[in-house]
Amino acid sequence: MAPLSIPSPPPEWATPIHIPWFNGQEIPIHSYALCILAGIIVATVWTSRRLTKRGAEPGIVLDIAIWAVPLGIVGARAYHVLTHPNDYFFPGADPWEVIRIWNGGGAIFGALIGGGIGVYIACRITGIRFWSFADALAPGLLAAQALGRFGNWFNHELFGQPTTLPWGLEIEKDNAAFPVGLPAGTLFQPTFLYEIIWNVIGIAVLVFFLERRYTMRWGKAFGFYLIWYGLGRWPLEAIRLDPSEIFLGVRTNIWAAWGAILLGVVIILVQRRRHPGLELSPYRPGKEWTPPLDPDEYVVTDGEGDRAALDSSDTDAVGSGDEAPAGAPREAGATSTTGSQR
Fold it and tell me: Per the UniProt record, which residue ranges are transmembrane (predicted)?
């Protein structure tokens, strides 16, 4: 092996946890699932922080995630099954295998489609603008996909063509995907690592360059994500050895990468024309969230010079007509006989 070659982890690392179950059986917890779960958590927390800073209600991301995550999983499985029909539809095939996602088989492009549908539904319910959420999510998506790719390493799968590069990936000879005729010890392109690096660079470009110099709102940050991911996935898909459906001589996932690039360009061009100004709120008009009044921020006079904090039942005493809304600064010189702001 080359001195810098990347070893595949021991097979037992693919299922590091076994939960005891009925009748002495165990439920295996796969490393791939843990990687996906870690990605979902990181994306959710990061998106929540970004969206809250833009004026959204804290925790509202969870209301959207309960729609987006399940539909994203359904979409990932459906896309995989439809693009690998020979693995699931043949004489004697078990039809229930189509839904057994725990046996492996999911696709990022399908997750984007299914998750996007879930986000749209949830945004209609919560009042959050779809594009506001998508922009807040963009770097988290890249982070989640980077973490998820570690699952391919644990599973010894989705590697690229043979290579003599010193950082080639070691794959065991008895791996079902090992090309026939190649000698044991052949190294392969570590496509999982390339995609991780590409996604991390994309995060840096978006967060530390584009968003600091340009107004990446109204869907523009998400458009960048689609372009960036598509540009990276295109060449990586071309060197992968795993079987895939071919359409007009091109792998289906390359078509999907081209579609992502085109869609990202269209989103940016259209939204630049439709929304050249700032995005003032992540909510649709009429659906805005107003932070609750903090009783410690207001005091009232009891008539004898003593001051007492308002409790939640006294908030009607503030704002009798010319009072500033909760959390808003007073105009210079404004007074009130009912209270004052600390």
Answer: 29-48, 60-79, 99-123, 130-148, 192-210, 222-241, 253-270
Residue type, 171: I
Give the pTM: 0.80
The neighbouring-strand residues paired with 100 are: none
Every domain of the chain and the residues it spans: 11-274, 295-325+335-341
Cβ atoms 298, 318 nearer than 8 A: yes
Angle at 74 between CA 258 and CA 18, to 5 degrees: 115
Residue given tokens 């945004």 in the structure block: 123
Q: Residue 149, annotated ligand binder?
A: yes
| Contact assessment for residue 146 and residue 208, using Cβ atoms and an 8 Å cutoff | no
Strand ordering across the sheet containing 298-301:
307-309, 298-301, 340-341
Contacts (Cβ under 8 Å, ≥6 apart) of 304: none
What number of other Cβ atoms are within 10 A of residue 3's Cβ?
6
Question: Is the model's pLDDT at 4 over the cut of 50?
Answer: yes
